[in-house]
Structures are given as C-alpha cells and as structure tokens.
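Lecture 7, part 2: worked example. A protein chain together with protoporphyrin IX containing FE.
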Amino acid sequence: MLVELLSGICAVLLYVFIWLKSKANDTGHGIPIPGPKGIPLFGSLFEFELGNLHNIASKHAAEFGDIVQLRLLHEHVVFLNTADFIRKAYMDERYKRFLNDRPVTFYGENFQYGSKGLIMNKRGYSPRHAQLRKHFAKGLKAYGDGVTAFEDIINREISDMMEVVRLHKDHEVFEFLPILENSLSNLLSVLMCGEKRATNEHVSLFWDYIEMVNYVGTPKFDTIMKFFPFLKYLPGPYGSACRKLERMREQLIDLFLTRQKESFMPGKVRGLMDYLIHEQLKEISENKQDRLFTDEMLFALIADVVLAGLITTRAAMANMFFCLMHHLEYQFKIQNELDRVVGRNRRPTLNDRNQMPMLEAVAMESQRYLTTGVVMAHLANEDVNFEGFHIKKNTFVFPNMWYVHHDQKIWGDPWTFRPERFLDNEGNLLPMEHPLRKSWVIFGMGRRHCVGESLARSRMFLYMANMLQKWNIFPARDATGSCCICDPRSSDVEVKIVTSPKPFKCYIRKRW
Ligand code: HEM
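Predicted complex, written out as structure tokens:
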C-alpha cells in the first residue's frame, strides 16, 4: 500500500515536471492529436487496464477518429485506428525510422539483459536489429517452416496429440486447451533443440514463465518497479515475482542453452539453438569485436520464442478451434475441401494448402473475428509530423487491431463470423492487394512484423486439417443445456495480451 502511495506521489511530481517542460518545448510538429482529456493530472490512467484496453480504445476511436491520443500521467499513448495509418506509421519512408522502436520496460531491462533479443529490442532501425531478424528468420527457416523434415515432426506431434484426444471416446466431454498446450510445448522444444525435451515439468515451466512475464509486464508492475527498482531485492510480492522469474529463466537457460551446448556437434543443426550456437562459434573464431551472439543474446532469443511463439500460437489455434466448434457448417465446408484435395487415405501436407482456400479463409476469419492480436507498443523516438498530426517524442504508439478488425466501414458485418468475406466469387482467396486483405493486420507490419508468421500459419493449417479430416468437434453443454458463447464481446472470450477463449469443454465425433 505504502509502495503504491509513494509511486503515486512520485508520478505526480514527475508529471508536473514533464508537463512544464513539454509546455516550454512545444515544437509545432503538426496539430494536436484528438482524444479524451481524462481526469486532471492522471489523464486516462485508471481506465487503462489490460483486459479492457480494446474496449476503451475502440470507444475513443469511434468518438475521435483515425488517430487518438490518451495521456497517462506524463506519458502519451497514441492509437492508430485504421490499417492505412498503421501501414503508413510502420512502413512509410517518412515515418518508419521514428515509429518502430520499443519502449524500455522493467522486464526487458532486467530479464532480457538490457532489452536484448528481438521483441524487446529498443531500436527498430538499428543494424543489430536488422541482423538479428535476418538470422532469426534464417534459423527458423532452416529448421522451422522451410524443411519437410519439420513437417514430418509436426505430423508426428499431431498424431501424438490426436492419440490423446482419441482417448476421449465419441461424446465424452474433455478440455481441449491443456492438450493443445502440451502439444505446442513439445513442438517448441523440437524447434529449439531438435528433440522432444519437454517433460511435463518443462511444459509447466513454459506456461508459468509466460504467466509470470504477463504479470511483471503489466503497466502497474512496470511503473512501480521503475520508480522503486530496489523492491526487486526485498521480501513482498514484487521481489518474490522477480525472484520467481529469475529462477525460471535459469531453468530455461539450462534446458535450451547449457544442455544444447554440451551436446553440440559442429556441422549438425538439430534446431534453432544449434543454428544460433553455430553463429556464436563463428563470431568467436573470427575474433569479432562487439559480438552479436553472446550467451545473453541467445537466452533473450529463447525467451522470445517461448513468449512470441507459444502464447500467440496457442491463442490463434484455440480461436480457430473455438469458432469452428460453434460453426459446424464450416467444419463441413473444410471437410468437403479435404475430401476433394487430400482424400481419406493420406494425411494433409503443406503442399495441399494452396488448394484449400476455405480452410485458409476460416483461419483468417477466426483471427479477425476474435482478433488474436498481440498488444505490443512501438515508441516514437522523435517528434513526428504524422499525416498532419503531432506525435510527440517518447509517445507509445499502438496499432488498434481490435478496432481495425471490427470496423463496420471496412467489414460491413464485423460481428458476424463469415469466412467467405476472404474469398472471391470462384471461391479463391482474395488477392493480397484487396482492401479486406490489407485490413487484416494480425501479424503487424513493417520492420517489427512477426518473424514467425509463416511458421505459425503452416502449423495451424496442419493441426486443423489433420483433426478435421478425422473428426467433427462440438461444444459441450452443461446440465442446463447451455454452452460457451463464441462472440468476441462475450465473457467466454478473454482479451489480455492476446485474445483467446477461456477454458472450454468439447467432444468429438468420428467422421468415418
Ligand atoms: C498466430 C501466431 C502469431 C501471431 C498472431 C503473432 C503476432 C505478432 C505481432 C502482432 C507482432 C508484433 C508486431 C509489431 O510490433 O508491430 C509479433 C512480433 C514477433 N513475433 Fe509473432 N505472432 C505469432 C507467432 C509467432 C511465432 C510462432 C514466432 C516464433 C517462433 C513469433 C515470433 C515473433 C517475434 C520474434 C516478434 C518480434 C519481432 C520484432 O520486434 O522485430 N511469432 N508477432
């Protein structure tokens, strides 16, 4: 309580100081961005809650237009409310160098060794960030989405997962999310080190780590720790969370880095970690000054994959599964496609993917409808005149994905699940330059665009195609006959860093 009080007083003092300073330095970089005034001194601080952010941001978008600014104490937060503005901010030559940095966070500085890795990397246009992205993408491709060997591994993992699902006989109700989490954790471990190293204990480690980062990454925790970093060393909830996270970080390092280095064989790339270790050894042998691939960097990249790779993919797959479960007609449509393209005597492969536009459209629509989107801030590193508006230096710039994906002007019927919107009259996927495709921004854009998109989408295809080839999936009903509701506005859907359904029960029925 005392800590919260002190942090409040410090914040107010800091705010007054910065407000006076910003008054003195008004640079006239365009007109002020419209937005709510909020309450004196605090601005919109009290409505800025993670689970409610999408509603608040959408409400302000509807009221103020394509760009909205909120004030949280002394800080400014801008929401970009159209795909066009997001694209311009992150990709246009005039703005991209100024709007692709990330804010400094307590988590990044303390647990990613000074914001190393990709996600927390502070400078979106630094040569190091460019180099890292290139290597990360190459490492993922070398093992992740570029090689048929990985497809075989995914298929084996899907078979294992389906065995677990199969234990639940027709009509027997079960929870799907823990099974999916387990399966994705196994895949993560194969992607990282080439073998299924994830015991049950490791599966819990991944998900506990994610949960703890979510907690440490909340605006409240972040603000308090920035004001009182010494709390890290004291007893109490803040220190205890930090110590817990530190212990988990050590366990992840042991699992993916120490053990991988011990069994490393030059010339043999078993997974992403071997690729990175190989690059590290190359830098050492070349006696390179200012090395990129230090152990700290390698760990930060491990954390990136655990965070960015697991939480998002779990959410995206759960969303698609949830939508399909509630729209049986689309299960049938995909099954018609599967019967025509794949038949019943072999497994679906990634080569079938471009002949299955309905499955692709359902995947895209479920991501739009429930908006898996990650809440990831960019930071303005300069005062920018953005399309006539003044974005001040150090403003947090968010893409308002929720609003963009539910904007009635774009989608017409945004609250209806209708995958056909992504198909043309012949049933083919709309071309990339179609306005609807351009408004689908689930993986971000430009320099910070998701490096795992291709891997994530191919995995989703294989999981869904394999399951639907064999089964139909139904939502379970409780004793009163009611079941969970698949609607982005329903309380059965949870919007946090990503959006996904709350734990739900289902049952399956064999197709043949
Ligand atoms: C359906 C699943 C996924 C979704 C919806 C998703 C979405 C996103 C989004 C919205 C961003 C931020 C873009 C921005 O800041 O403007 C991002 C960044 C990132 N994603 Fe993904 N992602 C997914 C899967 C993955 C996977 C499987 C991996 C890796 C194995 C991955 C690795 C990353 C990394 C490293 C970044 C940071 C890039 C940077 O800051 O330069 N993601 N992702």
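The longest helix spans residues 295-326. The radius of gyration is 23 Å. Keep this in mind for problem set question 3.
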